[in-house]
Design goal:
Helix content is 40%, strand content 17%. It is α/β, with parallel strands linked by helices and 857 residues long. It has four domains: 15-91, no CATH class; 109-407, Rossmann fold (3-Layer(aba) Sandwich), CATH 3.40.50; 445-697, Glycogen Phosphorylase B (Rossmann fold); 746-853, Immunoglobulin-like. Helix 7 links the parallel strand 1 and strand 2. Helix 19 packs antiparallel against helix 20 (485-491) and helix 19 runs antiparallel to helix 23 (578-587). The longest helix is centred in the C-terminal third of the chain and has 44 residues, at 699-742. The chain starts with 17 loop residues before the first helix and ends with a strand. Bound molecules: pyridoxal-5'-phosphate. The site of pyridoxal-5'-phosphate has 13 residues, from helix 7, helix 23 and helix 24.
């Protein structure tokens, strides 16, 4: 029997408690722990059951409790106070970071991501990418950046992990009730749901839109699970990273094309878009289509405008992490669309191909994003370098160092990740502006002043809290698995609150090498049980549901955790999520990470540990390659950043190094106790890593960097290109076509330099070259000397470019150019000359793919 009608019943709310709902509906609670504490204190048990979701929690509070709260003056005062601080927070509008003038009243930046990790209460994330997006929004909010975000409301989220008694990962998919979560449906003036539609192979599908408040930022989530859709399309927003390739294509069409439509429907007029990973690259196509339709631009002019105002961040050096769709799969979805863009099918496919002429090549979302955006970046310095190599075929004529992919190193939102107890200590010694002040270098210097004893006691308390949490969780875990009484009892006794505690929590992808630590089990067991200096490990992490290799790693680890030698000092926690992660980042002594360089693009868990004074111990990959210091003053390295051909040999060498560093450095430093039982040398490292790394690996710094190198320039470019009915965009497109046709006949001859045989350090070399511009105006090109030290293979090991100036006309269209270079150190030095297109509105002269080098020889 089915009910005739279904209602959402909500409790009758005493008016005095109204502000509770305001606090519950803004995810500000996820980085203002006082708010979460206020909720928790009403009913700890229910709060835990509701998984820190304040909306669900309030709706489940018994009427009796609500009424008693309404009569509790102490509670009401605290509520008023917190509501006022939220109001105060929301009322600030002026951004404190450098930003184009007259921008910032309305959101001008649209941020796209397939996942967001804002709070455990909003389970629409799987891991690093989503958490990073969440931290990006939080910092954008703190810094008053005018940004709006687009994502998807997954009814079953990613998955919840549990293990069978023999350690095999199982997936659970609870169904989330959005009505009971901190989100509200977008409605029109009459209160009706706003629906957006996209076409899938001739079928029209609809999505409703959920609005989430993340501080000052609005996050808009698409949801196709509505009556208007056929069953297969309702599934589009069921699971994050679930389903087959075609499902992924549907999700990405929804996010990219649907996302642009949502912005329009809700009255947003963003000038630039930021694609967090290639998943959303269809957004660029949809923007082009709109400019063509609404403003009658040609494809070229619209594409110029869109690319000039788009930012793309790539996140993975693992090839499988980049979506590639076979042309046959693309065709039914995009053939019509290509026609609307005025593109032949092959030309359309070329937008997603590294080699446009290769008909067999699948359509790659990363390539599309690179082609549709002028500002591209990887997420650490090393990853920038790796990405330039990985995608150099998109710019076949360029030396790899000129491939236009830069780097903005990721950061973490400290107020969300620093433990409340530690945060109080920071407040006391650094002032409360460590939370919001973007000029955090000065603020973080004050970490030096924190009392050693206070810092250590706080840290020890956090370790105890972690162990408490582990025991409780382990108990529940075992209970679920049907464990016996004796086993359950054991759960209460695992781990030692005084012992050196090492954490390892991450996706169980094979390149992360979770089992590196197991390679010599005898040695490991000896380390664990060495009295009086015991060591213990806490592991957590999920493997992708289809990744059996990853699941095997978990099983191997869990098997060892269950042996008599290890069961008290090694535990595996199920269902790694933002909550498990927080406890671990806050309560471990050491955060261990063992990715196979250079496959970790950045990694952020180590940063979250670092802001809590937890010391990192990691291979030199991602951010740690930037942060680690050779004197180990901020933490330890595994190896020196070598890359190996033979991965088995690499694993062997690095596991040996891992044990050595543990035995010879980490354990002795931790247990070297002085007066008051304080490990002074360890505390020194804790303080130094907070002080020196805190302000750098912060998402405030990251968002500020994006504002400076990406958002600001892209907005200014947009403004220039759209002025006077898109005059400049049309002009630029025309100029580009012109350059494309004339470029091939450009010529360079007679490159000369003063006495190239005998050169002294610090003495200039004068270079001249004759250029035939073939009707191109001199101001349309940049003639450059490309110079630098040369390695033993005769290749540039570094390079510098120097602009050459026109130095007089010659006959028959030839013109002389002149410039000077200066070798700054002794050794082999070389130069050559090249020509690039140049236009004041062109953000990046490499984007045309045109270049002319002086002939060799
Ligand atoms: C930070 C975080 C991650 C990403 O950490 P990595 O260092 O990239 O492995 C994954 N999951 C959760 C829950 C996190 O908080």
């Amino acid at each position: 029997m089915q009910p005739l009608r279904v209602y959402s019943v909500v409790p009758k709310l005493p008016p005095k408690l109204k502000p509770l709902w305001e606090l519950a509906y803004n995810c500000w609670f996820s980085w203002n722990t006082e708010i979460a504490e206020l909720f928790a204190q009403v009913d700890q048990k229910l709060w835990r059951e509701c998984e820190s979701n304040p909306v669900g929690f309030l709706n489940r509070l018994p009427q009796r409790t609500l009424e008693s709260l309404a009569g509790d003056q102490f509670f009401l005062d605290r509520l008023t106070e917190l509501r006022k601080s939220l109001e105060h927070y929301l009322s600030k509008t002026a951004t404190s970071i450098p930003f184009p003038e007259n921008e910032g009243q309305e959101p001008v930046i649209a941020y796209f991501s397939l996942e967001y990790g804002v709070s455990k209460a909003l389970p629409i994330y799987s891991g690093g990418l989503g958490i990073l997006a969440g931290d990006h929004l939080k910092s954008a909010s703190d810094l008053c950046l005018p940004l709006v975000a687009i994502g998807i409301a997954y009814q079953q989220g990613y998955f919840r992990q549990y293990l069978t008694p023999d350690g095999w990962q199982q997936e659970r998919y609870p169904i989330y009730d959005f009505e009971q979560m901190p989100m509200t449906l977008a409605t029109d003036a009459e209160g009706k749901r706003v629906l957006v539609s996209v076409d899938l192979k001739g079928d029209r599908i609809f999505a409703q839109i959920w609005k989430v408040a993340v501080g000052r930022i609005k996050l808009l989530l698409l949801d196709t699970n509505i009556a208007e859709n056929q069953p297969q399309f309702k599934q589009i927003t069921t699971r994050l990273y679930g389903g087959n390739l075609e499902m992924r294509l549907w999700q990405e069409i929804l996010l990219g094309i649907g996302g642009i439509k949502v912005l329009d429907l809700l009255g947003y007029k963003p000038k630039v878009i930021h694609m967090n990973e290639g998943h959303s690259a269809f957004a660029g196509l949809e923007r082009i289509r709109r400019f063509m339709e609404d403003s009658k631009l040609t494809f070229e002019a619209a594409a110029e405008l869109v690319a000039s105002s788009s930012i793309f961040t790539t996140h993975t050096p693992v090839p499988a992490g980049n979506d590639r769709f076979p042309p046959d799969l693309m065709q039914p979805y995009f053939e019509d669309y290509a026609r609307k863009l005025g593109l032949a099918w092959k030309v359309f496919l070329a937008l997603g191909r590294e080699d446009p002429r290769n008909d067999a090549e699948p359509f790659c979302m990363t390539v599309l994003a690179l082609r549709l955006s002028r500002i591209n970046n990887g997420v650490s310095l090393l990853h920038g370098h790796v990405s330039r190599n990985m995608w150099k075929r998109v710019w076949p004529q360029y030396p790899v160092e000129d491939v236009p992919i830069g780097a903005v190193t990721n950061g973490v939102h400290a107020p969300s990740w620093v433990a409340p107890d530690m945060a109080l200590l920071f407040d006391r010694y650094m002032g409360s502006n460590w939370r919001e002040d973007p000029d955090c270098t000065r603020v973080f210097e004050q970490a030096e002043a924190i009392s050693d004893a206070e810092l250590w006691r706080t840290h020890e308390r956090l370790r105890e809290r972690l162990i408490d949490y582990v025991r409780r969780k382990l108990h529940d875990q075992l209970l679920q698995r049907g464990a016996k009484r004796k086993e359950l009892q054991m759960a209460e006794e695992v781990l030692d609150p005084q012992a050196l505690t090492i954490g390892f929590g991450r996706r169980f992808a094979t390149y992360k090498r979770a089992t590196l630590i197991l390679s010599d089990q005898e040695r490991l067991i000896k380390i664990l049980s060495e009295s009086p200096r015991p060591v213990q490990f806490i592991f957590a992490g999920k493997a992708h549901p289809h990744d059996n290799e990853g699941k095997k790693l978990i099983q191997q680890l869990v098997a060892l955790c269950g042996t008599p030698e290890c069961r008290y000092s090694m535990v595996f926690l199920e269902d790694y999520d933002m909550e498990v992660a927080s406890y671990m980042y806050q309560g471990c002594d050491v955060w261990m990470n063992t990715p196979r360089r250079p496959l970790e693009a950045c990694g952020t868990s180590g940063m979250k540990a670092m802001v809590n004074g937890v010391l990192n111990f990691s291979t030199l990959d991602g951010w740690w390659a930037e942060a680690w210091r050779p004197d180990n003053s901020l933490g330890w390295a595994i190896g020196l950043g070598e890359e190996y051909e033979d991965v088995q040999y690499q694993d062997f060498v690095e596991s040996q190094t891992l044990y050595n560093v543990l035995e010879n450095e980490i354990i002795p430093t931790f247990y070297d106790r002085g007066h008051g039982n304080l490990p002074r040398a360890w505390i020194r490292k804790m303080k130094d890593s907070i002080r020196y790394l805190g302000p750098v690996f912060s998402s405030h710094r990251m968002v500020e960097d994006y504002a400076k190198v990406a958002y600001g320039p892209a907005i200014e470019n947009y403004n220039r290109l759209v002025k006077k009915d898109f005059a400049a965009a049309k002009d630029l497109a025309q100029w580009r076509m012109d350059m494309m046709t004339k470029w091939s006949s450009l010529d360079i001859r007679n490159v000369h330099a003063t006495d190239p045989q005998q050169v002294f350090v610090g003495e200039p070399i004068v270079v001249t070259a004759e250029i035939n511009l073939n009707g191109i105006r001199p101001q349309d090109v940049r003639v450059e000397i490309y110079s630098g030290p040369v390695d033993f293979e005769g290749k540039f090991s570094q390079r510098e470019t120097t602009i050459m100036q026109p130095a007089g006309d010659m006959q028959e269209g030839w013109q002389q150019f002149r410039g000077e270079v200066m070798p700054v150190e002794a050794g082999r030095f070389g130069f050559t000359v090249r020509i690039l297109p140049h236009h004041p509105l062109l953000l990046d002269s490499h984007s045309l793919g045109l270049i002319r080098w002086a002939d060799q020889g």
